[in-house]
Structure formats: C-alpha cells, structure tokens
Predict the 3D structure of the following.
Amino acid sequence: MKISDSVFFVSGGASGLGEAVARRMLAHGAGGVVIADLNLGSAQKLSSELGDRALAVEVDVQSTEAITAAIAAGMEKFGRLDAAVNCAGIGWAERTLDRDSKAASIDNYRRVININLIGTYDVVRLAAEQIAKNEPNADGERGVVVLTASLAAFDGQIGQAAYSSSKGGLVGLTLPLSRDLAPVGIRVMTIAPGLFDTPIYDTMPPGLKEHLASTPVFPRRLGLPDEYAHLVQTICENAYMNGETIRLDAALRMAPK
Ligand SMILES: NC(=O)c1ccc[n+]([C@@H]2O[C@H](COP(=O)([O-])OP(=O)(O)OC[C@H]3O[C@@H](n4cnc5c(N)ncnc54)[C@H](O)[C@@H]3O)[C@@H](O)[C@H]2O)c1
C-alpha cells in the first residue's frame, strides 16, 4: 500500500503514538487522516494545525455507534478508507490482591479490556467492512490494519494483569484477523511498543520517567513517537508483512516490577 493519497483512520490519533502517525502519514502525502479520539479538543487542535487533509471526530471506542459515525464522517470528507491504525488505549496498574489481601476491582479490569481489546476489535471489523469495498491493487491488496499492543503482552509486570490481558489479547487477535481478512486483501500487523515518550507518563511520580528511560538495552532512551509511526509506514508499504507482532523496544525485557 502506498502512503500517498491513502486515507487513514487513527483511533487515539489526538496524542502520543497516534498523533505521530497522523503527522507522518500527512507529511508523506496521505489523502486524509481521521483523528478519532475521546478527547475532541485535542483532536481538533491537531487537525486545525495539520490542515484540510485532517478530520477530528469524537469517538469513544467503547461505542459501536460512535465508531460507525466516525468512519462515515471520514468517508463523507475523503471518499475512501485504506488503513485503520489503532492507538486508542489506556494504561492501568492494580495488584490482584492489595497489601491487605483485598481483591482488585473487577470493574477496572473490565474497563481496560473494553477499551484496549474490545474497542480495537470493534474499530477493525467496521473499518475492514469499508476497506473491503476498495478496488484491489495489482497484488490483490485493498488495505492495512495496525494494532498497538505493548511489551506488557509478553513481560507483564506486577499490577499489570488487566493491561497485559488486553494487550496479549491483541497479539492473539493478529493471526486470526489476518486470516479472516485475507480473502478481501487486507493485511493485519501488530506493533508491541516498549517505552515511548508520550503523555501517558505525565501523571507518573517524579523521577519515574527518567528511571524508565534508562532501562532499554540500546539505544538507552525512550522511543520517539515518530519511530513508532515510521514502523506503521513500513508495515503499510511492505506488502509481505502480515499476521505478525513486532516488538519495537530497543531490546528491553521488563522485570517483575
Ligand atoms: N507510550 C508507551 O510507552 C506505550 C507503550 C506500549 C503501548 N502503548 C500503547 O500505545 C497506545 C497509545 O499510547 P500513547 O502512549 O500514545 O498514549 P496517549 O495517552 O498519549 O494517547 C492515547 C490516546 O487515546 C485516546 N483514548 C483513550 N481512551 C479512548 C477511548 N475510549 N476512545 C478513543 N480514544 C481514547 C486518548 O484520548 C489519547 O488521545 C495505547 O494503546 C498504549 O497502551 C504505549
């Protein structure tokens, strides 16, 4: 799939990794980017900076209705959809038993699964329905789907039961999705990022971000959001990438805590 003239639906596109995808794809000639985010204010601020090829839409990925409406709004503005990049997600830390051996909240667990896993699947199935209507290219390809897992899918730390389950679910989803969507020429790839410098670290205790930045093997720093976006671009452009999860983590393996 070529980036130029293609139209991207980016969930969580108003911040961090999704924002970097929106910026990079437009810089490389994308025909349009739908910035689909819970935070409409940030999405609108970004779209007004990026110009007419960006469209901000308020979407909670927990709502099938909102996703459907956002895809329709993108179709109305840009007339096509070629790729869905799923970056909407939340972090969560809660031990299964706290220090007093009190059980964790099942509502918090459900919320993380609802947003990170079920929300992603809902975006993918609805976007794929639209992408499947494209004329195939010479390779039979109609479009691309990218999921965003995490190192926590493999090396979940203490307190990451909910988050790791949601991200491990995305890793598990990758191959069956690519098999389901192969008949219509849609490829599916998952990126499992290590530690990337995005606003998710803004709420952490002082010093923790600096500590985390020292943990990757090489290069010993946080990843840049554009390094994630670069891999999304590569996935789109390399027609032989399908059905696999790529760790993008500077060789980091997370310790128990
Ligand atoms: N930054 C990292 O180090 C890192 C590492 C591994 C995985 N990830 C994953 O990458 C993705 C993007 O993370 P980020 O670091 O860019 O975070 P971020 O907080 O900067 O961006 C996430 C965006 O998702 C949006 N969002 C949250 N809940 C939503 C919902 N229900 N519906 C629609 N939009 C919603 C937020 O408004 C925000 O704009 C997440 O899935 C996260 O789990 C990030």
In short: The mean pLDDT is 97. Residues 11-12, 14-18, 37-39, 42, 59-62, 87-91, 115, 119, 148, 150, 193, 195-196, 198-200 surround nicotinamide-adenine-dinucleotide (CB under 6 Å). The helical segments are 16-27, 40-50, 64-78, 106-131, 161-181, 208-213, 225-237. The beta strands are 7-11, 32-37, 54-58, 83-86, 143-148, 186-193, 244-248.
